[in-house]
């Protein structure tokens, strides 16, 4: 089974413009995986033309089943200030469900039948991220943007469980969330693969969890990567083959992928 992860950046392409409609699905089609975790996914957001991005991604990836876990309602980016409401617990949505917006969160797509879905929320950290925003009278100023609520969504497949997540930009909070995710994943049918933007570099996620790192390669930023923030971490009797770091036509991170086999 080939598993991949991608930070979609709400559909931003290499030039900073948002890909919309079928172009978004086409941009992710080349990831070539059976199960794909995607972070920063929009539903009904003005910045991404109001698209139902999960449905477009499912079409591009050839997914037979999927779930998105929305963690925010409203517009999450400051213009000049954010106007969003945390969704706690996160709201799970799948094929055929209405697409209320504006929402934002993580998603997991599968070309294989899924036996059961699970979701868990981790809340938001206390850290704030400095973000340049338009200033009155022209120019820009720095706005301290609050951390987002975080969540994980898991799919029980025939031979393993895959978990998609996106952790806090604050390292201490991300470590705490990763430990909570590991405890939660221990109750899922194993073996388990965690796929996502963990916002923790290199070998640290494996050290924190005791898991096996399946891909070793720099992923961020996409154009000239200097750090690996995107990971596939295995728990249980699993090994990875043919690891890859992929630069797609969408997202501000490079995607990671590996074929997961018992062993």
Automatic annotation (TrEMBL):
Keyword Transit peptide carried by entry: no
Keywords: Endonuclease, Hydrolase, Nuclease
The keyword Hydrolase is annotated on this UniProt entry: yes
Endonuclease/exonuclease/phosphatase domain segment(s): 5-253
SUPFAM superfamilies named in the record: DNase I-like (SSF56219)
Species this chain originates from: Pseudonocardia tropica
Name the record gives this protein: Endonuclease/exonuclease/phosphatase family protein
MF annotations from Gene Ontology: endonuclease activity
Domain of life where this protein originates: Bacteria
